[in-house]
Each structure stands twice: as C-alpha cells, then as structure tokens.
Q: What sequence folds into this?
C-alpha cells in the first residue's frame, strides 16, 4: 500500500516528467510561430523543478484533505469524480493562451501528481470510489 513518501516520490517523478514535457511541447509550438526561438536550458530546468515540486505536493494532497484516519477514509478527494474535476480545471487553465509556461506547468504537474496518487490508491484492496460517498 502506498504511503506518504511513496505518494510524494511518485508525484515528484511524474511532475518532473510533466514539467520537462511541457517545456518541449510549448517550446516547439512557439518555435513554429517564431523560428528564431532558442532552446533555453535554464527554462527547461525551471519547468522540470517546478513540475517536480508541484507533483510532490499534489501527490500527497488527497491524503492531506482526507487523512487516513480509518480504512474507509477515501471519499470525494480520492474519487474518479475529483480527478475529472481537476482534469477539467487543468484543461481550462492550459487552454488560456495568455497563461505563462510556468502556470501551465503548475496546472499539468498538479494534475499528474494528483492522478498518480489516485492511481496508486486504486491498486490497494480498498481501491478508490468512482462516485464518492458523502457521509
């Protein structure tokens, strides 16, 4: 079963990969408009670092919002509905053309960190709810 450190570590890994992927995706998208745009290694490192930190925080967020005080603690913040809402909000942020690269990295790395948490928890015997119970 995934614990705090495993959620944090896997969230950081997916966040780093997301940050680097964002840099390359948006760099090449911008390069189509402006062929003079140069590769910037510091911007890549910044995106990767920001993605890792954001992913690590988002990777533990569901357990911070719903602490594991009992075996049935997984409710709204551990549900597929929560992932859907976070995905939708992330899409809205990323679609904003005026949003900076770092805002897009924050949004996407937060999404991957959160989804990584839910994916890890879905492999446990208690799994995660598709539709949360509200007690």
A:
């Amino acid at each position: 079963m995934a614990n705090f450190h495993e959620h944090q570590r896997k969230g950081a890994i997916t966040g780093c990969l997301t940050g680097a992927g964002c840099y390359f995706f948006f760099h090449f998208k911008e390069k189509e408009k402006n062929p003079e745009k140069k590769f910037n290694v510091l911007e890549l490192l910044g995106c990767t670092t920001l993605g890792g930190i954001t992913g690590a925080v988002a990777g533990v967020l569901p357990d911070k919002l719903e602490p594991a005080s009992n075996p049935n603690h997984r409710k709204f913040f551990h549900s597929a509905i929560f992932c859907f809402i976070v995905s939708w909000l992330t899409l809205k942020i990323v679609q904003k053309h005026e949003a900076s690269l770092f805002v897009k990295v924050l949004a996407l790395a937060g999404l991957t960190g959160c989804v990584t948490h839910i994916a890890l928890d879905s492999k446990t015997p208690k799994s995660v709810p598709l539709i949360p119970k509200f007690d």
Q: What stands out?
A: The mean pLDDT is 88. The helical segments are 4-33, 41-65, 80-95, 101-122.
